[in-house]
Write a structure and sequence with these properties.
CATH superfamily of the largest domain in chain B: Rhodanese-like domain
Structural class of chain A: mainly alpha
Oligomer: heterodimer
Distance between the termini of chain B: 72 Å
Largest sheet of chain B: 5 strands, parallel
CATH class of the largest domain in chain B: Alpha Beta
Shape of chain A: elongated
Distance between the termini of chain A: 20 Å
Order of helices and strands of chain B: HHEHEHEHEHEH
Order of helices and strands of chain A: HHHHHH
Helix content of chain A: 55-70%
Shape of chain B: elongated
Low-confidence stretches of chain B: none
Largest sheet of chain A: none
CATH architecture of the largest domain in chain B: 3-Layer(aba) Sandwich
CATH topology of the largest domain in chain B: Oxidized Rhodanese, domain 1
Strand content of chain B: 5-15%
Number of helices of chain B: 7
Mean pLDDT of chain A: 84
Radius of gyration of chain A: 19 Å
Radius of gyration of chain B: 23 Å
Structural class of chain B: alpha/beta
Largest interface: A-B, 34 and 30 residues
Mean pLDDT of chain B: 89
Chain lengths: 175, 165
Amino acid sequence: MGRGRVAGGGRPLKVVLDLLAAGPRNGNPWIRVAAMLAAIFIGSLFVMAALPKIQDPLSFAKIIYHYKILPDSLVNLAAIYLPWLELACGTVIIFIPWWRAASGWLIAAMLVLFAAGMGSVLARGLDISCGCFSTSGEGETISGMNIVRNASLLAGALFVIWAHSGKRFRVTKTG
Amino acid sequence: MDEKNNNMSRVWLPMILLICTAALAAGLANENRATPLPWFEAWSERVESKSGELGIRIAELPEAEQIVNDGIHFIFDARSAEYFEEGHLPMAMSLPETEFDDKCLEIAPMLIPEQEIMVYCSGADCDESLQVSKYLVEQGFTNVILFKSGYESWVEAGLPVEEGL
């Protein structure tokens, strides 16, 4: 399916699925579906991660401060801005297939940054809350599993980017 | 070459739009909050500056030790009950920030507004003692002291602790 063309034969579910799986370069239907599922999964996680932080930026700022990575003056700025970037990227990667590569790159960049932050916390032996899906100071403590999870999500995001860019998925009709 | 430029713009333009939209939404949401988070704040001096604004005095370790030894002050541990159970300052009572409303109903009748109170949490970076001190001041208590370096400094100094609830 090409950009802007909605196939579906009138069945609403198929129209929605075709829309979600749309993209400029994804000719292979299996890869289209896999990329769509990966995008929906990653996007949902990012939206879920963003909402509590948007509701309570002060608690999120405390968590960022406890990472002891950013200068004091940038803590609140990050606490105010990052959740909205997560929400925007999470929403776009789910609902706007033509922007999946762009939001995928931003999500990948965030995942790398978060993993680096958590790695630094582990290296310094700090015992602090992750702030991944909750703003509770007594929430999920940072461990190696968080970095493994981030790496898995990063692989998913890179797959979404790959499926939505370049020429390799163009269908070449023969005969 | 044109196709390459198109590919680039297909990624870069939405990225820039996403970054700018998120910035705009974040700014608008923050400014429309009942209590907007300041854009810039000196976090390492936050406890001092907030307690100063609230009229709460800061105590360092030697004074906290003296207070515990004198036995005049009510001492409140603002950490969660689990941490309190693992170890706390002698004679301290558990008053977690998250359970303040319920616990305060039990504790307040025992106290007069002029009662001398000391509050602490895990260390210099924790925020719970500041919050509990703030709530106590809002309840009308006038002699609230915040032991800033908290439980970690107490343990590091090798001072005695009690375990259990």
